[in-house]
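LOG
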Amino acid sequence: MAFIHIALSEGSTADDVRQVEEKVGPRSAIEGLRVEAWGVDGDRLRHVTVWESEAHKDRYEAEQLLPVFQALGMASKVGANTEFITCQAEGLFIR
């Protein structure tokens, strides 16, 4: 079953996301990632991902995302200023 992950980050910018994306690499190479969308609304970044499973999301965060945050010096900022909302998807449509 698909897994939905939403991150709401105060003070994060589009440039922050682009820096992370550059270090992580192509989205198509991230195992289990089905959908990703993000945007900035004022001073709040809204980042939505849909994964094949929660285990895929957890593995990506531990093995790829968190090390990139640490390398870029963003780990404490993101951790302190981000709210996470997650749930199993009851339905998923991709055109």
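LOG (cont.) second protein
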Amino acid sequence: MTSLGKKPLITILGVVLIIAVYFFTKSPKFVDVEIVTLEQGEVRATVSNTRVGTVKACRRAYLAPATGGHSS
């Protein structure tokens, strides 16, 4: 192969390597999960809600259609 033939091949391999590294680093991480076998037994503790009130969203979406609606 001449140097003219090697240059595009090296460039393509470099681009493929960069893309592969990008996708492998951006892949989602696995979540650790603890598996427990359920058994019958006595209740050791209970949980109750001591906070009374309302829940408010921290962000709100406003929808505005580009055209008005029409009813038949």
